[in-house]
């Protein structure tokens, strides 16, 4: 039997039609005998294992990645950049945070290439091992007072390693869930990969808060290191579970049809530039919400007089709410469409931008609590739930790992990586202030709303 050749630009398969921007594309039956698409319930032994693996793997990697973000707000400016003065030390600390986000698109390209070429599962195992090694090394890093400038340089290098690893994690975890799930439950299934992010943030925040309380005055000496070193245990658990899941039906079809691209990145740039841009702009919105409330907002609240441990505990509670809202909004998007949910969340964020920022700045725990619940729990939660399915549905199977990862990770670089520096910079000049920060947030959310409305609705489309 002769296997069908890989489709070219003028041979759009059903999923290619979505990627090309046609909302009315009609699904067609795959022409080669291959594994049938997932149907039925998510409540099977195989699907439970797949969804658990996606959730736990993402949670572990984002525990590592977001632990750094919290430490950048509270620790690194004092341990690695203390000689720069308070304002500029915090700016430098946020700059190292941004370096990790800058590296994420590179991780998306590298891991996406191999994910589209050799399989989703294999690269997920590798990304987790790399992330664990980088995080443990940060926990063992000597301070600037001990080894001079070698310490912040090593910190930047290790942050780059973290960024590359997590850049490959999200796409694989999301695709493992989406490509195994029944069509009518794709959004909810993909939310398990997304929900790993706030779950990891909860673990990281609670770990740092716990050891801040336990270590007391020794927190800046040794207490902050323990949560980084605990990553070793989590990585082992995650690898055991991840090694038990099977490759996705979509990738097995690509293998059966011989339709894998030699260089998936070039294929994405040639056939799906519009999908890439839409995914980038839409995803940037929730990353800005995350950075505004859980990174810059923490620093603003503590600097305004709120208790540090109380702020960290409230942040953890809000992340739990983000998890709940994430699953709810993902399931809602399966019923009424991704564009409707994402567009509504962007409008809500525009309305609440100024009140949230004002509450974070009032110097009280109750003010920060309301702000982070609204900004992180509600607005980000509604943006976060459907985004994995929304972005992934814009790309065909043959380059989905690369395309979805690149748009998502570029958004993480622009949204989460640069936002703390941008808003800190907006506060430094005499003409700056909170109103400029609020305007920045509103403009980002407005751009996301436009991008979502211009995108094709992929909820009812077959992705194979």
UniProtKB/TrEMBL annotation:
It is a multi-pass membrane protein. Residues 1-12 have a biased composition (Basic and acidic residues). The keyword ATP-binding does not apply. The keyword Repeat does not apply. Residues 19-29 have a biased composition (Low complexity). Keywords: Cell membrane, Membrane, Transmembrane, Transmembrane helix, Transport. Gene3D superfamilies: MFS general substrate transporter like domains. Residues 50-459 form the Major facilitator superfamily (MFS) profile domain. Residues 1-43 are annotated as: Disordered. The chain crosses the membrane at residues 55-76, 88-111, 123-141, 153-178, 190-214, 226-245, 275-298, 310-328, 340-359, 365-385, 406-428, 434-455. Its main location: membrane. It holds the Pfam family MFS_1. It comes from the Bacteria. It is found in: Cell membrane. PANTHER family: SHIKIMATE TRANSPORTER (PTHR43045). This is MFS transporter. It comes from Tersicoccus solisilvae.
């Amino acid at each position: 039997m002769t296997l069908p050749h890989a489709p070219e630009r003028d041979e759009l398969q059903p999923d290619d039609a979505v990627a090309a921007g046609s909302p009315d594309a009609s699904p067609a039956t795959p022409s080669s005998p291959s594994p049938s698409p997932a149907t039925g319930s998510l409540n099977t032994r195989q699907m439970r294992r797949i969804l658990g693996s996606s959730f736990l793997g993402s949670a572990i990697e984002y525990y590592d990645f977001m632990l750094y973000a919290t430490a950048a707000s509270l620790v690194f400016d004092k341990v690695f950049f203390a000689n720069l003065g308070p304002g500029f030390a915090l700016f430098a600390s946020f700059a190292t945070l941004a370096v990790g986000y800058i590296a994420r698109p590179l991780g998306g390209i590298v891991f996406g290439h191999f994910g589209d070429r050799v399989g989703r599962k294999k690269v997920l195992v590798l990304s987790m091992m790399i992330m664990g090694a980088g995080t443990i090394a940060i926990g063992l890093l000597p301070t600037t007072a001990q080894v001079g400038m070698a310490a912040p340089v090593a910190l930047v290098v290790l942050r780059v390693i973290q960024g590359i690893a997590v850049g490959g994690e999200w796409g694989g975890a999301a695709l493992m869930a989406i490509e195994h799930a029944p069509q009518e439950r794709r959004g909810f299934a993909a939310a398990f990969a997304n929900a790993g992010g706030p779950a990891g943030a909860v673990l990281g925040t609670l770990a740092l808060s716990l050891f801040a309380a336990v270590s007391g005055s020794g927190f800046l000496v040794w207490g902050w290191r323990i949560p980084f070193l605990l990553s070793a245990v989590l990585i082992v658990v995650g690898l055991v579970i991840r090694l038990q899941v099977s490759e996705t039906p979509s990738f097995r079809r690509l293998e059966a049809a011989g339709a894998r691209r030699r260089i998936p990145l070039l294929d994405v740039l040639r056939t799906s530039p519009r999908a890439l841009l839409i995914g980038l702009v839409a995803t940037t919105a929730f990353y800005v919400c995350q950075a505004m409330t859980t990174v810059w907002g923490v620093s603003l609240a503590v600097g305004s007089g709120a208790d540090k441990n109380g702020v960290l505990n409230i942040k953890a509670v809000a992340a739990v709410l983000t998890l709940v809202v994430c699953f709810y909004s993902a399931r809602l998007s399966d019923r009424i469409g991704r564009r409707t949910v994402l567009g509504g969340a962007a409008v809500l964020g525009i309305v609440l931008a100024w009140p949230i920022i004002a509450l974070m700045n009032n110097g009280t725990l109750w003010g920060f609590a309301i702000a982070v619940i609204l900004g992180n729990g509600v607005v980000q939660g509604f943006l976060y739930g459907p985004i994995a399915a929304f972005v992934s549905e814009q790309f065909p199977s043959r380059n989905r790992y690369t395309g979805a990862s690149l748009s998502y990770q570029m958004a993480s670089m622009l949204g989460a990586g640069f936002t703390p520096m941008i808003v800190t910079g907006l506060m430094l000049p005499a003409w700056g202030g909170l109103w400029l920060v609020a305007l920045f947030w509103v403009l980002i959310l407005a751009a996301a709303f436009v991008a979502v409305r211009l995108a094709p609705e992929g909820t009812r489309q077959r992705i194979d």
